[in-house]
Specification:
By secondary structure, the protein is of the alpha/beta class. The chain contains 15 helices and 21 strands. A seven-stranded parallel beta sheet has the order 13-12-14-15-16-17-18. Strands 4-8-19-20-21 form a five-stranded mixed beta sheet. The longest helix is centred in the last third of the chain and has 27 residues.
């Protein structure tokens, strides 16, 4: 199939020589996608046999053939039988995590991959994740916590280019967790991932620091506090909410238990970055979500993936990678395949331990999915979010099983499409630029060979990705091709 517009430049190491299409019409500057069913993300009816007109990096017209007549001489790409949606948004990622055990030093005790070297490796080329995102149809991501460079490094944050996804980044997380904990060890000295939350003075300094580096949100990592210290720490979370509001920054909170999630909402949380997973949500919780107009980010699959990564190390079995479009790069595949690096952990989980881990996760998944359905039925704003970067929750590729887990919870595919596009853009504060297919917005979209409204698993059938007006066949974006047997 012919490309409307060719990139002609490298996607950081991939030479995309174009697909033989001509450029825009020299007089009008227009190019056209025709024949597809266009699902514009607004919640309105789709345009059958639709037309998408593109001028430069923006959408000039989206609608029916009658709405958007194609001027004579305009180059066309015929997408008859295909489906177009806005580019996907992953509202919870971590640029400074790899997608494997090496990216979380507390996962297993091992010196095989020194953490400071891993972080430097990521910092040297954050474009690796942009490539994975675009390859998967993701054109925008929200990095909700990470080292300083995830905010300040131009290669991560300079997204005004067609080989990068849009990024909003929160930077280092504010937390009450003990700085002697294993996951605090091995950070680069000038690249903190965590900031202290032991006093209001700490909070003031933390937020001043976040403002100084250009962070676009305040993220609080609020784990279940010691009951003896809960009153003090609860007050500090409330103070963090007040300080974030005074600084004009949205408050994002990691709080996975119902008690702490309610407290986060009372503190003014703009987004709960995980599901409530300890017990069913109640009406008070739903009322708080609605009153605050808070976004709810389910991250359903990440816990199970953590489990399977640790089990793989114990059993010394290479994990199966769910990567439907070949978007996981060779370097990461090599680390996941090198399970022998964790041979010191072999056998540390008994068969009973493994069975219990899986049973516990399935119980939590049942609670999270029931809570997600309750939140959806209450009319709360929900954003598709993977927590990618955690072990086996792979940048880019994780979006498909996450959406499918949302559908398994009882959410209709049509609603998940909006949660994965318009709602994510809204949570990022960028809905005026992308998230729906409307004239004047950026030309960020994906093309599918199957109807995602019928089954959200059809999002796997990705044929093209357009970012900022450049349309590429998905095969040109692939980072991995399975060997032919």
């Amino acid at each position: 199939m012919t490309s409307v517009r060719t990139l002609g430049a490298a996607l950081t190491g991939l030479i995309l020589a174009g697909c033989g299409g001509s450029g825009p019409d020299p007089e009008t500057g227009l190019m056209a996608l025709t024949g597809a069913t266009v699902i514009d993300g607004t919640g309105g009816p789709a345009f059958e046999d639709g037309v998408v007109l593109v001028r430069g990096d923006e959408l000039a017209c989206v609608g029916s053939a009658a709405d958007c007549p194609v001027p004579d001489g305009t180059p066309r790409t015929d997408l008859t039988g295909h489906f177009i949606t806005p580019g996907l948004v992953d509202a919870h990622v971590h640029f400074d995590q790899t997608g494997w055990l090496d990216g979380r030093p507390e996962a297993l005790a091992t010196d095989v991959y020194p953490y400071d070297e891993t972080i430097q490796y990521l910092w040297d080329d954050p474009g690796r994740w942009h490539r994975a995102f675009l390859c998967s149809g993701i054109t925008a991501v929200y990095d909700v916590g990470g080292a300083v460079w995830t905010v300040t490094d131009e290669q991560a944050t300079d997204t005004d280019r067609p080989d990068r996804a849009h990024v909003r980044a929160a930077g280092p997380l504010i937390t009450h967790v003990d700085y002697n904990a294993p996951f605090m060890v091995g950070m680069l000295a000038d690249q903190p991932v965590f900031l202290p939350m032991q006093s209001e003075a700490d909070i003031a300094e933390d937020i001043a620091f976040l403002q100084s580096i250009g962070a676009q949100a305040v993220k609080v990592w609020y784990l279940r506090p010691d009951p003896d210290d809960a009153e003090r720490l609860d007050a500090l979370l409330m103070a963090a909410g007040e300080a974030a509001d005074a600084a004009g920054l949205p408050l994002l909170v990691h709080a996975t238990d119902l008690r702490e999630a309610k407290l986060a909402l009372r503190a003014g949380a703009f987004m709960l970055v995980h599901s409530v997973g300890d017990q069913p949500v109640d009406q008070e919780f739903l009322d708080l979500l609605i009153a605050n107009d808070t976004f709810y980010a389910p991250t359903l699959i990440v816990g199970g993936n953590w489990n399977e990564a640790v089990i793989a190390a114990s059993e010394q079995n290479v994990s199966v990678i769910d990567d439907p479009n070949g978007c996981v790069d060779a370097a990461l595949r090599d680390r996941i395949s090198n399970i022998a690096a964790y041979e010191d952990f072999a056998g540390q989980l008994s068969a009973e331990d493994i069975a219990q881990r899986r049973a516990d996760y399935m119980e939590e998944m049942d609670i999270m999915q029931a809570n997600l359905l309750a939140v959806y039925e209450a009319g709360v704003r929900i954003v598709t979010s993977t927590d990618s970067g955690n072990p086996l929750t792979l940048h880019g590729a994780a979006i498909n099983p996450e959406m499918e887990a949302m559908q398994a919870a009882g959410l209709p595919a049509s609603a998940i499409i909006e949660m994965s596009t318009r709602a994510g853009a809204d949570a990022m504060g960028m809905a005026d630029r992308f998230g729906t297919l409307e004239a004047g917005k950026l030309a960020d979209l994906i093309v599918l060979s199957s109807d995602p409204r019928a089954d959200i698993a059809n999002m796997r059938d990705l044929t093209h990705v357009m970012r900022a007006g450049f349309l590429l066949e998905q095969s040109d974006l692939q980072l991995y091709t399975a060997p032919v047997e």
